[in-house]
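Figure-free illustration: sequence to structure, shown twice.
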Amino acid sequence: MVFFLYSQGGVVYTLFMNISDTFLHIEEFLSQVPENKIPLISIVGATASGKSALAVKTAQEFNGEVISVDSRQIYTDLDIGTGKVTEEEMEGVVHWGLDLATPDQQYDMMQFKKYAEEKIDDIYNRGKIPVLCGGTGLWVDAICKNFEPKENTDKQKEIRNQLEKQYEEDPYSVWDKLHDLDTERASKICVQNKHHLIRSLEMVLQNPGQTVSDLQ
């Protein structure tokens, strides 16, 4: 799927089956963007769906730079299994949004939203077209629809405080609980990674029946 939109409004959703049709519609879209708006192209899809290659070709065709919008690709040393684009696959196109933090650092959606908005302005001010490539649907929405999360409720704060306390007393019990609810996620987090362990368990506790992957 390809989104065509301009900053702060004018969202159009379009689905095309081939590159030539997509480029024709992008060209038409760019010709109609108001002067006071920033044109933004967003290419979204599942892992291995070809979105990275399409993003590169789009950037080459329309003098753009790519911003990767993926909650896993922001981390260094997590290349395998995340579908992170390689330098060869970039084909000389500048990519942003990769390797922003180490796996033991906290980096959430709102931090990335701020980062992406700054890059979008910078790319456009240099006479280029920003092309988003994602990845993580909620993060794409945060940028494209100016999504703002609701403030933590008292219940959410209570859950976090309980998990913090439980981790201090017995960190392995927190990992075991996550493993019971989301085995796949637990297998990717070591017990010593307190932030990601607690955050992952918090997510599945607040969304019964769903895994972290479902929520990203």
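We now fold a second protein in the same way, so the two outputs can be compared directly.
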Amino acid sequence: ASFEDEHPARDFDWLNLGNRLWSHQQGVEGEAGDERACPTRQLSKPTRGELRQREQRILDAGPTTAALAARRAEGEDQLMKKTRQPFAWLSLPGLLVACLLWTSPSWAEVPTLVVLDFDLLEDHPDASRASDQQRRLEAVRTGFIEGMREHELYRVVDLSPAREMLDRFKSQRANIYTCASCQVEIGKAVGARYVAAGWVQKVSNLILNINIEIREVDADRVVLNKSVDIRGNTDRSWRRGMAFMVRDFVQRREQDADYGR
């Protein structure tokens, strides 16, 4: 058992305690008739100053059990508040909000889209620029996908399940964007509602344009054609051209909810 259990907190009246001890001693002496009859030590009546000194020593020794319990309860309450604060969002209302956001019908209604590899059309191929242009084709495709996802224009699905099919079609024809049936088959293979075919037409190293065609898979119909002209055959010009196309797409979708559908 702790000290607090063996000595429960109470408010002592040291003056009354001293008086009781004095009265008890006097009673013992009266009954014995002789001071020697009492085996205990002779007690003298403590003065008020001595009682105050005793009380002060007890107070200086530490807080009472009640005070300790109050401090402990206050500390535990502060600790619980600090512990709960980082996880406040885990409360029931927070979880409900998270579930509603996750299952938002607006996101569920966003149509799916698969984006094919971009083709390059050029009248005068330049072998020295082939690797750079292929890298730029992949970069503008990635930029288009990221723009569609960021602005929730489409839910872009992974092309990987149909990669082998796409490579086979590309081996049979120069450009995939000219093969509507190929696009439809790939769209069905990945379960997308729409399929996007893109290509960059290079007239010269100064004049180029980026093109996107979006086709509805089930109806096999083109729902959107977009094109943007760029000046200069550089990473920067290609990147800026795709950024402009995405920005224009977003603005038109805000004006017309069916744009590109």
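Summary for the second example: Strands lie at 112-115, 119-122, 155-156, 194-202, 207-216, 221-231.
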